[in-house]
Amino acid sequence: MKKIITALDNSEINQALADNYEIVCKDISYKEGILEQIEQNKKVDIVIFDERLDGEIELNSLIKKIKEKIKKIEIIIITENKKEIVENTKRYKRIKIYEAKKIKIKKLINLINEVEEKKEDKKEVKKEQLNFVDNKNIIIFSGARGVGKTITSMIFSILTKKENILIEINEEENYDIKIILNNKRNKIDFYSENNLNKIKSIINKKENKNIIIDLGNQTKDEVKESILKNSKKIIILLEPNIIGIKNCKKIINKYLEKYKIEKNNIYLLINKKNQNSIDKKIIKNIFRDFKILEEIKYNYKYDKYMNNEFRNIKISMSKKEKEKFNHIIKGNF
Description:
Layout: E1 3-7, H1 11-18, E2 22-23, H2 32-40, E3 46-50, H3 59-69, E4 74-79, H4 82-89, E5 95-99, H5 105-129, E6 137-143, H6 149-159, E7 164-169, H7 177-181, E8 190-193, H8 196-205, E9 210-215, H9 221-229, E10 233-238, H10 242-257, E11 266-273, H11 280-286, E12 291-297, H12 301-307, H13 313-316, H14 319-332
Parallel strand pairs: 1-2, 1-3, 3-4, 4-5, 6-9, 6-10, 7-8, 7-9, 10-11, 11-12
Helix pairs in contact: 2-3
């Protein structure tokens, strides 16, 4: 049963809701009291409050503070001015507006039930989305921000002899490959996308091709989980320094514990190596449960390739660089 906080200054409605839901406290009569109760009850699912309540805190500040304390909480706001409230709260997710001078208990219960049904529907959709790919060679490049996964995934999409498609998955404002390759000179079959159904459609249309995915850090959880669980290999890039190792551990733990990814699907690629980097033997010992594919040196020329014509990278790479990348390609693509 979902836990609910009410701040309606109406003990009668509070009691009526208690017959159907778990109400975690007595009805609150002032806005600041909502934050006090949330501080004591961190597992609350829904907050219902009347924006006409007394209190010095402004509506936007109240919602922001509620969301900071419990990110995925559902909020139902009672108001007489729905249009104004909708305009002021449109930046926030999981908010419902109930316009009424007088609250009707049946309508309020219907709103609560709509919230519940929506959550259940999302769970069902999520289950259906898993295992959406059959017999596809999906290889993911992942890693902390700034580790070089975008440029690395692009290099592999060029160097592999098989036909490839390159998919960048991230929030739209963080599309990097699209910026680099958005010109006619680069003949790479690439897509920038964050919608799981569209990603599924792209993959299923591209038969007999490697699917190389640059998995961005801002990717939505449900998309990330589905993509990770359907990949052949997950290559996590790590920088060979203390922070890089810490970030890599954090990502691995999340993949294993939250997404339940099998250990043998995870591989590591040491990237941006320089003369001051931690020795490969030490890193191998730290990540002894995972295979380290290769160690790639930092190349300052990559910035030049990103700023100009990226396809020239294949021509300009040194023989040793190509050997490193080809060594990885031989066993994985």
